[in-house]
Specification:
The protein is α+β, with helices and mostly antiparallel strands. It folds into 3 domains: 13-42; 48-92 and 127-170, 2-Layer Sandwich (GMP Synthetase, Chain A, domain 3); 94-124, no CATH class. It is 36% helix and 23% strand. A 3-stranded mixed sheet has the order 1-6-7, with helices on one face. It has a two-stranded antiparallel sheet with strand order 2-5.
Length: 170
């Protein structure tokens, strides 16, 4: 364009950036953002909603492990009355089944859905045990404590530094 000519258009960049038009630009952009937000709420989404892990399941799993371990330790000669506490590192982890469709240039991976719209669980990993504490009548005897430590190591696949055996207070 030549110096004397000015483009006569409604939406030129220079005219939008002038001070008096900045307010108009802000209003137009705000209205466009609100329309996009409303449209996103109205359109259905195909996202798979993962089930919320209930802490009751995790607690029940931990309590079951503690009870089984307590019953087994009480059978060790010299252990006596036993209380067991286990700590879990993380919650239950679910891996969902996926369906992969591949083309020449791209591939698409989607979750396999059941009739009720929930995702098909392929594998469920139980919480990992990260520590165990055992309090028993015979915990002060080094031989009994060593047997209990070995038992817990073998059952829970824990290193010895994550297992504590102590004598019950009399």
């Amino acid at each position: 364009m030549k110096e004397g000519q000015e483009k006569t258009g409604v939406f030129t960049l220079r005219s939008l950036l002038e001070k008096q038009n900045r307010t108009k630009l802000a209003v137009v952009l705000g209205a466009a953002a609100m329309i996009l937000l409303l449209l996103s709420e109205l359109l259905p989404t195909n996202a798979v909603k993962a089930p919320v892990l209930a802490t009751a399941d995790e607690t029940a799993y931990r309590e079951q492990l503690e009870k089984q371990l307590q019953e087994l330790i009480e059978q060790i000669d010299g252990a006596g009355t036993t209380t067991v506490m286990i700590t879990l590192e993380s919650g239950e982890e679910t891996v969902y089944a996926t369906d992969t469709q591949s083309g020449q240039t791209q591939s698409q991976e989607t979750h396999v859905l059941l009739e009720d719209g929930t995702a098909l669980a392929q594998t469920i990993y139980l919480p990992q045990v990260c520590g165990a504490a055992v309090v028993c009548d015979g915990g002060g005897d080094i031989r009994v404590a060593a047997q209990i430590t070995e038992l817990v190591r073998a059952l829970l696949d824990l290193s010895a530094n994550r297992i504590v055996v102590a004598q019950r207070r009399s």
